[in-house]
Amino acid sequence: MGLTQGFGARTTASVLPASARRAAGRSAMGGVGLLKRLGPLEAAFETRVCEALVASEKWLQDAIGSAPDPRVAELTGHIGAAGGKRLRPLLVLLGAEFGEPWREGTIQAGAVAELVHLASLYHDDVMDAAATRHGVASAHARWGERAAVFGGDWLLARAAQLAADLGPEIVRLNAETAGRLVSGQLRELTGPAPGEDPVDHYFQVVAGKTAALLAMALAVGGVQAGAPAEHVAALTEYGEHLGAAFQVADDLLDLRSPAELTGKEQGKDLLAGVPSLPVLLAVAGEGPRDAELRARLAAGPSADPAEHLGTLELLAASRAAEETEALMHARLDRARLALARLPRRPARDALDALCDYVAVRTA
Ligand code: FPP
Ligand code: MG
User: What would you report as the CA-atom Rg of the chain, rounded to the nearest whole angstrom?
Assistant: First the structure.
């Protein structure tokens, strides 16, 4: 696709399909909806965090649409306007609850974390050749790969700019996290080193590409609100484990959750030959139960839709999928242990409930 294809076309909600318009509506309330799923919550806490989420969303939308050229703003605003759970801004605001959440900059910090996330999605969709994200066409499907990569770069630059307004500690956390995201993705690209256990390698990848940003979001919130260092450390550790569990859950969702719920094609990891945790465990497995599955995985992704669906069903019902679920729960248990080092507050209860949410989420 040419670089200019898609530019200049109107991409406002009015010309988007109904599914995309619904997704855009969800985006403003994404974090609020997620927070409400963590309840029942103390009323004053819920109101405070909801208001902060709405304000943070405003910072985000202003940032993603702020390119002076409206055609560039269409590109950079595309995925952020289409929806999302806004998990990262929520984590920033929950982290801030262990300090003085009303301090200046906590709301902008929520936008910083989501900008980094959005930037990574632009790049990730290019890497995965994903056709859709949040129920709309991926940026590269619409504007081409080079434009999508630059769109992601632009969002990352915007995150750095907002972080600079918040001070050197936030700049450092932001830069370190972006580096870990890229390293995680590069490790995924290079695959395990000779002799390296593929499951160990998988968790190294996950620590970089997913856990780093969730941990950073919690830390940024704590730091910006002036939380004590030991609380920031506990929040960071919680975020690392939650993030690992979140990515493992994402692998399971790829198997089990239909596209209408996730906004991504079901089974896209399998089709793309991505070594997700269930696939790695199935390949390493022994015994008759998953023998047919192992043979199909050894043959590689199938272009025949019926065959692909058959493999997906076998994988979803496999012992490997059960083991994947057990590993996810183990990381959630470790996240809860880190939480126990924090003082009892409504935010701690919400973070505890988030562990349950990760285990049962369908989108
Ligand atoms: C989604 O994982 C992808 C990520 C969580 C991070 C991707 C990171 C990069 C592409 C590095 C570049 C980073 C920056 C900051 C520009 P997935 O593919 O397993 O999940 P999906 O099903 O949502 O695509
Ligand atoms: Mg992906």
Answer: 20
